[in-house]
Amino acid sequence: MLVKQHTKQVGWADIADLQADPMIKFQHKYYIPMCMSVGIVLPTLICALWGDLWGGYFYACMLRMVGVHHSTFFVNSLAHWYGEKTFSDHHTAFDSIVTALLTLGEGYHNYHHEFPQDYRNGIRYFHFDPTKWVIRLMSYFGTTWDLQSVSKEEIEKAKVQMQQRNLDVQKAKLSGLAHYSWEDVKSKVAVGEQLVVIGGYVYDVRNFVHEHPGGRRTLLDWVGTDATGPFEGSMASNHLHSKEARSFLNAMRIAKLVA
Question: Which CATH number fits domain 176-257: 3.10.120.10, 2.40.30.110, 3.90.190.20, 1.10.287.180?
Answer without folding.
Answer: 3.10.120.10
